[in-house]
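Need fresh eyes. Consider my entry:
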Amino acid sequence: MKYLNWICFLTVFLILTGNTTALAKDDESLKRMNLYKKTEAVTEIPWEYIAAVDQYERQVYDDPSEGRVTAIQVDPLFWSGTPEKIQADIFPEGWGSDGDGDGKADIENDEDILWSIGNYLKSYGTKEEDIKIALWNYYKRDLTVQTIINTANVFKKFQTVSLTDRDFPVPKQANYSYRSTWGDARGFGGRRIHEGTDIFANYGVPVKSTTYGVIEMKGWNRFGGWRIGIRDIYNIYHYYAHLQNFSEDIKVGDVVKPGDVIGAVGASGYGPPGTSGKFPPHLHYGMYQDNGKNEWSFDPYPYLKRWEKMAE
C-alpha cells in the first residue's frame, strides 16, 4: 500500500510540476527495453544491438508510427522476398516472420519486426564482427554501421536506452564567453563558413563531453588543430577543435558520458601538426546531423545555451 501511495504521489507531483513528459519517456523506455530483452532471449542477439538499430532508425524516421514503440521500417523486399523477375542476392526468401505468436507476419508489428531483424543478424553470427557484416549488407553504408555499433557500445556500458543528461563543454566556474557565430565567413584554407560556436576561455581550461557517445576521431586537423569527434546515440557528431591537449589515455572507441573531460582549451590549428597561437585560445564546438544518407552542420548555439542553463 505504501508503494502504491508513493507511485500516486509521484504521478501527481510530475503533473503539477509539468514533468509528465519525463514520466512518459520513462514509460516508453521501459516498453522498449522489454521488447529488446525479449528479442535477445529468443534470437541470442545481445539486446544492445537490437536497441541500437532501433535508435538509429528513430533519427532517420523520427518518432515511431502510431501504435508502435519501435521505429524500424524494414524494406518490403527484406520482409517478403525478392520478386522472381529481379536478381535475388541478399534477401531471396524474405525474413518477415511471426514474432508475437498471433499467426501473422506483420510488417508494422514491433515484435514481428524485432524477431525478424534478430534472426537476420543471427544468420551471420552473434559476435560483433558478424553483426557488422550483417548490418553492412542491410544498409550498404559504412557510417551507418559504425554509428549503430557505437550506440550499441554506449547502451551496453550504461545498460539503458534512457540517456538524456547533457553538460556544458567547459566548467561554469571558468572565465569564458561565447556568442552565435555559426555561418560566419572564414578565410583560412579557402572561402567557407564557420560551422560551429567558438567558446573563448584561457589555455588549459578543461573541455568536457556534452553527451553520451563514442570517440570516433582524435588527432590533428589543419583547420581544427588537435581535435576530438564524438558520435552520440542520436546520429550527431560533436566536434571539439583547437585543443591544447587530450586527456591522458583517452582513445578512439572509448565510451564517454556528459561531463567526462576529454581535453583542454588551446589555440592549435591553421597549419601543419603543432601549429598554435594564430588566434586567441578557444574551443570550437560543432554539431553535425546524419540522416542515413547525408551529414550536415547545424547551429549548436541554442543547445549550448540550454546546456549552460542546465549546468547552473
In short: The first strand starts at residue 176 and ends at 178. Residues 1-20 have pLDDT under 50 and may be disordered. Residues 2-158 form one domain.
